[in-house]
Design brief:
Length: about 50
Amino acid sequence: MTKTEETINHLEAFLSGHQLPYSIIGGIAMIAHGYQRFTQDLELILSSW
């Protein structure tokens, strides 16, 4: 597991553990869907409920 993957896993665990709705978008989301990207930027959308 890469450092980036480890960081995302920690972020997801934290947000889910606090029942915070979120979406990950940007380069990291594209990679997760199988697209090749040279960037590893991550944008995060949080809901304010």
